[in-house]
Amino acid sequence: MVGAEADLDLARELVPLLAAVAGRIIWNGVPTGVAVCDAMHHGGPWPATSAPATTSVGTAAVSRFLRPVALQGVPDELVRAISPE
Q: For the chain, how far is it from start to end, CA to CA, in angstroms?
């Protein structure tokens, strides 16, 4: 999503809907181009990683997230629209 302060009212309605179907919501940013898939592996020998036997983005990495939605740069009031606790 690309938005400004004037868009927050509409975004407050859209973000909970998007969170129900999306794995990632980015506010005023661009995605990295990295996918969570079997073929994607960020690792390798030191100094690229301290744990070369694991992946940061492959399908095994999904289990590291407690919630299957990553919020990047999303304003606090929109985060509260998803999870008002």
A: 23
And the tokens for 73? 């740069």
Which pair of structure tokens corresponds to residue 61?
């990495």
Span 24-67, pLDDT tens digits: 888 898 877 777 677 666 655 655 566 666 556 666 666 665 55
| Strand partners for 25 | 71
How would you write the chain as a 3-class SS string?
CCCCHHHHHHHHHHHHHHHCCCCEEECCCCCCCCCCCCCCCCCCCCCCCCCCCCCCCCHHHHHHCCCCCEEECCCHHHHHHHCCC
pTM: 0.47
Q: How confident is the model at residue 9 (pLDDT cuts 50, 70, 90)?
A: very high
**Phi/psi class of residue 39: alpha, beta or left (left: φ > 0; alpha: ψ in -120 to 50)?**
alpha
Give the tokens for residue 25. 């919501």
